Amino acid sequence: MESACKNIMSRALIMCPDHQGVQIALDCILKAIPEESAKAIAEDDMAARGLISLCAASPPLARMLARDPMATVRLFQQGEVLRPKDRAALDAELAVHVREAESLAELQRGIRRCRNSAMAHIAVRDLCGLASLDEGMGELSDLAVASLEQACKWCFRNLAQKHGPPDGLDLKGHKTGFAVIGMGKLGGHELNFCSDIDLIYVYMSPPGRQEMTTGGSAAPVHFHDFYTRLAEMVTDALHRVTEDGIAFRVDLNLRPGGKEGAIAHSLDAAEIFYTVHGETWHRLSLIKAAFAAGDVEVAESFLKMVRPFVYRRYLDYGSLEEIRWLKRRVESAASRERGLDVKRGRGGIRELEFLVQALQIINGGRFPEIRETSTLGALERLSRAGFIDDAARVKLEEAYRFHRRLEHRIQMAQMRQTHRLPDDGEAVARLARGLGYPSAEKLKEALLQHSEVVYEHFSRLMEEKGGTGGGQHLAERLLSGTMDYAEVMEALATMGFHNVPAAMEALEYLTGVHVTSRFPERTRRLLKGLAPALLHHAAAAPDPDMALVNLDRWVHRVGNRWGVYALLAENPGVVEPLTRLFGSSNFLSRMFIDHPRLTDQLIMQEGSTVRKSRQEMEEDLSRELQDEEDPDEKLAVLRRYQSEEILLIGMQYVFGELSVEEASRQLTRLAEVCIDQSLSMAIERIDPRHRGSVDGKPLFIIMGMGRLGGEELSFNSDLDLLFVYEIPQKPHSGREVMAPEYFVRLAQRFISMLSVPMAHGLGYRVDMRLRPSGTVGPLVVSMESFRDYYRNEARLWERQALIRARVVAGHPELGERVMREVHRFAYEEPLPAGAAGEIRRMRHRMEIELARESEGHFNLKTGSGGLVDVEFAVQYLQLKYGGEQPLVREPNTLKAMGALGKAGILAGDDLHVLMAGYEYLRRVETHLRLLHDFSTDELRFDSEAAERIARGLGYESKGGVRATDAMREEYGKVTRDVRDVYERVVV
User: Fold this and answer.
1) CA–centroid distance for 876 within its chain
2) Who contacts 816 (Cβ-Cβ below 8 Å, separation ≥6)?
3) Dihedral sign, Cα of residue 799, residue 800, residue 803, residue 808
4) What are residue 306's DSSP bridge partners?
5) What's the rounded Cα separation, in Å, for the pair 523 and 566?
6) Is 610 exposed, middle or buried (0-12, 13-18, 19+ CB in 10 A)?
7) Among residues of the chain, what percentage have pLDDT more than 90?
8) Tell me, what DSSP letter sits at residue 74?
9) β-strands 700-705, 719-725 pairing
10) Which of the pair, 618 or 473, is modelled with greater confidence?
């Protein structure tokens, strides 16, 4: 024994400055283990170094080992220290320790002894460089989770034997209805050496009829009392100090209600709490929430329930002010203590976590890929998603690993939760040497360097994303009434406002600069918090001037400024999407401002369905109409529904939740529902005695042509329609009226229903020029006339138009027969000689007579390389090959291109150019139509509108190149490529 001890001590004298302390610790451990074990450890260089390092770095841990000799033997003689322990191994060890426990005290003893052995294992592997930081944090977290799992099982079994389980639980399925949610570093699977474990206990109300336990040896209890007692027992199992020490300090302050809340919450109670009382700090804490122990289904239900609360669907910059406030509180508390704090100090661990969580909470609603509980994992995901550049990610990861390793060693030395460098210079020197630094000064220098990196990035986020800086300064000066007018005007111009006087006027009204003295205190308080964010987000909109002016118009329209500001203060996440909406689209802004009740659509959009089927829209409209009997009121409801849905679709497109194609489908489905309902209303308003019908419906159909037929409607699109009817073989008895007259009246009434402007909206503009014989033809055509016209009189362009024809409403059986005729006319008749030349001549006329392009003036639709080039190329191929290839008979342009590609008709490169070009041009067109309050295809790059569109499409001014110039360059390339393909295809 003595020789072994001397052998080890000789090394200790060389390696350790505190010879006496290490000797005492070693002596205690070696006396506790068998002599042959001491000799074996002395002869094993790795084992000896590990034991010496442990005694030098953590005397408290050495004392714990001295009380558990077999743990020392397993670690250093049997080589456990050389192998990592995964969750399964920890579970197995804990099961051995607690399996025979007959009391809570025995459970506590077993958990602590296993914990002490595992902590020594983790510490030595860290000290000897055998484990990475990630592995150490993971093993510490696994140890805590495994301890919680064993405690949950034992405590539930004990309580269930006494009182019986809650009624309705399936014990055979090992269901407990109770889950432990890990928060903070436990949830992130990144515990430090002496971390508290932050927990929330939740349970699910059992499905049984009575909310009581059943079948125990003692009296039954209410299930809330049962789960409360279970939570208390689990906490005691880990938290209570015993002769074996403590397993883990349990912190329950993050639970709903904090220190004053119940120790365990039902899922319903938790949902109510977060819905009613949830604050930003709750959302931040829940970012790291994860299942820890107990019933996994309960945990998953909880995590699913809180997800919409944590991650809102809009870009949530409104939470940054509260994050700043929380950070200031942390800094204030840290400043009252002595020494350097690696967690709460400037640029410390907490600041880095705030940085990561701020980016997650702002963007996580719209970008689910950045939702991650661990800090390092979140940095990686944020970098992949483009929110942090690679260089910054590397520096932040290095800073985080440095801080966490230093935190581990500080806590390891004292075996208590502390984050401060010791005041003792020699203790700091030991830390430095253990971490590979030659002196305490070099360690402190590295600490300050890493901290500065974190502080710099955090400060930049708070300034750029939070609306501080210029916006904060301007808002404060306006509200104070002491602003320098010329200075503010110059600052507005610098922020990107072009019409500075108008922006200044709107800002003065919004902030009440001339009437602030008469504002109630509550209004001034709301303004102080809101004005910087309003100004910041307006400046970031595609058109800052338009955003501010429309915001001003909206507040004027509502009238009650305090009510508006209170609404925005209660829903801070609305500020960014609201200003983006106002700065992106005069069309949508006009609808929003004219109908203040539609504000609810913006606030409630988080819970709305982004994509609705036609059936879902029909059901929604049916619910709106179910209590209305008056025909005029029904029409008012229809128009209101149409406006609300267009606004909702538009907002979702502006906010990036719908692509152009998805928005087009939604707008088309909405138009179809409105057409169908308008037809039903028109039928009801005509004397039924005049109606010839089959199966209760008139033999009348409405065909969608053009973009309606192709499911490609845009905002402000006209509806190209064609009406076909058929006289019943058995005329309706009663008053004799010519059937054609009835169908003309029906069509006229329908058009009126669909298009008449009302207080709730403008309706649709109807275009009938694609009907047989165009503007000189009858409004409605019989089935026989329709067939005869296309067989004998229709020109090539009319045959081409039928490619996009589709029945959208009316009698189903007649519709099927008409579509059979349409396919026969369009595809099955031989294509006339010279068809390609005729299509090219028609296209050339459109370009000359309609587009009229010149330098800087382009037409997205009919100009060279525009949308019509794509459509004509595709339609020519459909006419040419549609007879032999039914697959290509597709009214939607993009789907038709896909079908032509699958059939091998459209070559790969040409297909890519046409599809990419079409999608690009549709996006530009959609932004153009949203920007203006009317339908237009004209694009002038020398106009202010072009700059707004460029910003809306994501172009930026860089390196002296304006966003407009970048857009013009890409637009030119796209249209040239499209024209080249058109020239090759239509030959």
Assistant:
1) 42
2) none
3) negative
4) none
5) 8
6) middle
7) 36
8) I
9) antiparallel
10) 618
* Structural contact between residues 551 and 534, judged by C-beta atoms closer than 8 angstroms: yes
d(CA 722, CA 720): 7
12-16, 264-268, 273-277, 632-636 — which is least confidently predicted?
12-16
116/577 Cα distance (integer angstroms): 53
Amino acid at the residue 403: H
Quote the distance between the C-alpha of residue 674 and its chain's center: 31
Tokens of 754: 């669909």
Please give the structure tokens belonging to residue 718: 């006209």
pLDDT of 734 strictly over 50: no
| HSE-up (13 A, CA, CB side) for residue 710 | 22
Tell me the backbone φ, ψ of residue 420, rounded to 5 degrees. -105, 145
Give 640-644's long-range contacts (Cβ < 8 A, gap of 24+). Answer: 640/595, 640/760, 640/761, 642/670, 642/674, 642/761, 642/763, 643/591, 643/595, 643/598, 643/760, 643/761, 644/595, 644/598, 644/601
- CA 570/CA 579 separation, integer angstroms: 16
Of residues 752 and 538, which shows the higher confidence score?
752
Q: At what angle do helices 45-57 and 59-66 cross, to 10 degrees?
A: 120
Rg (alpha carbons) of the chain, rounded to whole number: 37
Phi first, then psi: give them for residue 866, nearest 5 degrees: -85, -170
Segment (H or E) for 201:
strand 197-203
Measured CA to CA, the distance from residue 1 to residue 110 in angstroms comes to: 30
Token code pair at residue 593: 């401002």
* Per-residue pLDDT at 521: 58
Which residues lie closer than 8 Å to 264 by C-beta, 6 or more apart?
A: 178, 201, 202, 203, 224, 227, 228, 230, 231
Structural contact between residues 649 and 670, judged by C-beta atoms closer than 8 angstroms? yes
Beta strands in 249-368 (DSSP E): 250-251, 264-266, 290-294
Under 8 Å between Cβ of 105 and 242: yes
C-alpha–C-alpha distance, residues 306 and 287, integer Å: 10
Q: Which amino acid is at 918?
A: Y
What is the reported pLDDT for 737? Answer: 47
Q: Work out the number of other CB atoms within 10 angstroms of the CB of residue 102.
A: 8
Mean pLDDT of 914-926: 93
Long-range contacts of 496-503 (CB under 8 A, 24+ apart): 496/539, 496/544, 497/539, 497/544, 497/545, 497/548, 498/544, 498/545, 498/944, 499/545, 502/545, 502/548, 502/549, 503/544, 503/545, 503/548, 503/549
At residue 418's C-alpha, the angle toward residues 413 and 422, to 5°, is 60
Contact predicate 515/561, CB 8 Å: no
Q: How many CB atoms lie within 10 A of CB 397?
A: 16
The pLDDT of residue 528 is above 70:
no
Residue 482: count of CB within 10 angstroms of its CB: 8
Give the pLDDT score at 328: 63
Give the lowest-confidence range in 167-171, 248-252, 615-619, 672-676: 167-171
Question: Which residues have C-beta within 8 Å of that of residue 844, sequence separation ≥ 6?
Answer: none
- By the 8 A CB rule, do 661 and 611 touch? no
Range with top average pLDDT, 207-211, 444-448, 527-531, 546-550: 444-448
Question: Is the entire prediction scored with pTM above 0.90?
Answer: no
Residues with Cβ within 8 Å of 393's Cβ and at least 6 positions away in sequence, in order, are: 379, 380, 382, 383
For 812-824, the DSSP string reads: HHHHHHHHHHHHI
CA distance 747 to 695: 20
What residues does 181 pair with on adjacent strands? 200, 291
Distance CA 887, CA 261 (A): 64
Using H for helix, E for strand and C for coil, what is the string for 847-910? Answer: HHHHHCCECCEEECCCCCCCHHHHHHHHHHHHHHHCCCCHHHCCCCHHHHHHHHHHCCCCCHHH
Contacts of 255 (CB under 8 A, 6+ apart): 199, 200, 201, 261, 262, 263, 265
**CB-based contacts of 856, cutoff 8 Å, min separation 6:** 940, 941, 942
